[in-house]
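Hi again,

Forgot to attach this to my earlier email, sorry! This is the prediction with pyrrole-2-carboxylate bound. I've pasted everything inline since the attachment limit keeps bouncing my files.
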Amino acid sequence: MQRYSLLNLARNALRGNKDWRPAWRTPTPKPGYEVVVIGGGGHGLATAYYLAREHGIRNVAVLEKGWIGGGNSGRNTQVCRSNYFYPASAAFYDHSLKLYEGLSRELNFNIMLSQRGVLSLAHSEHELEINRRWANATLMSGVDSEILTAADIKKLVPRINLESRYPVLGGFIQRRGGISRHDAVVWGYARAANALGVDIIQNCEVTGFQTRGGRVSGVSTSQGIIAADRIVMSVAGHSSVLAQRAGLRVPITTMALQAMVTEPIKPALDTILVSGAIHAYVSQSDRGEIVIGGAADAYNSYAQRGGLPVLQGTIAAVLELFPSFSRLRLMRQWAGMVDITPDTTPIMGLTPVEGLYINCGWGTGGFKAIPGGGHTMADTVAHNRPHPLITHFGLNRFERGALIDEGAAAGVAH
Ligand code: FAD
Ligand code: PYC
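Structure tokens for the complex follow:
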């Protein structure tokens, strides 16, 4: 892999930047691979990377129907945190956050992790009490969390209007939470996986599965049949459709989740604010844009665009908190198709079809989970049993009723 370093930057600049090689190859698919990963989002690429890096399984292809990162991984609002309510979730997401903390160095790619804190607001006494329980639950799982008064919040976020229609009474913060650049996470994993021999094949849609003797033997794709003993599905909002082609029913509902950015302004907000009650969250990107998101659209859809009512409601909520932002012009708005489970917890692990593994159900919160998801899925595929951190996230939990209801901790949008 051509290393990115100050020395290399200077050397290449002096040579007119002619010697940089593409960050990954554009291979034609081989007739078969040891492992095929379907979906070139963050989870698929991270799985391929850790298969090669940690398990020596390098005969791997990632098949992406469009371009890598063109799904939710390149459309999200970049929030990373691990302050989940239940111990199983907190342990998993903290594993992911810890991997994020070392990722720029590991991938030799600046993922621009900025741990500026994720602050959840409470707008009523009832919500304040729930926030206290939530903060204490995360502390008991060994995850940092701190309860803040309204005065603490005003000090941290001077522009906030505490006396809005929904007054701010307090909240809690995970100071290790933050944002990292979503494209960089995708490209960093792709470049590192490619360097270890993984084939990343774009414009290659998987249309069905080949089976032999009750187990998978390959996939049919828009570029022909590709054989594989082990297949991982990481296709987010398309999970139920694709799983059906393997004869599986997965409890995924697909909805559009939208976000938007304003024109860039000088530094105005250096933490991430989340309000479950008014269904909005807001941060400022490194380019200066105010990044705004809210609830998922209220209906099922496979279209990568959202409707105006949610947009309008979200903007109204943010302007209650920050009246001065009403002067800003909106620059862009977009949406992704999120894969929502009944308990807002992901589905990870083995499936009833031998050799077929699934990683989905991240809904509105799987960006923070990319390193952890890739790391544990690779281990699961390599050993054909769930990694200890994901045993609670199996598809079979819906048969047993062993749900992990993280609805309240799923950011705001669910
Ligand atoms: P994706 O990145 O969607 O990748 C799946 C890939 O599979 C896609 O590229 C798709 O083209 C491909 N694919 C589908 N079908 C096929 C097929 N048949 N053959 C081949 N390829 C196929 N999470 C957070 O943690 N923090 C946030 O702040 C946050 N904000 C969000 C804001 C928005 C607006 C949205 C939409 C999502 C947000 N999320 C957030 C959620 C997060 O983006 C996703 O959970 C995460 O990116 C999922 O990653 P993935 O790799 O599973 O899916
Ligand atoms: O999961 O933290 C989250 C989140 C924030 C915004 C969207 N998802």
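The domain at 113-178+254-340 is CATH 3.30.9.10 (D-Amino Acid Oxidase; Chain A, domain 2). The chain has two domains: 6-78+182-250+343-410, 113-178+254-340.

That should be everything now.

G.
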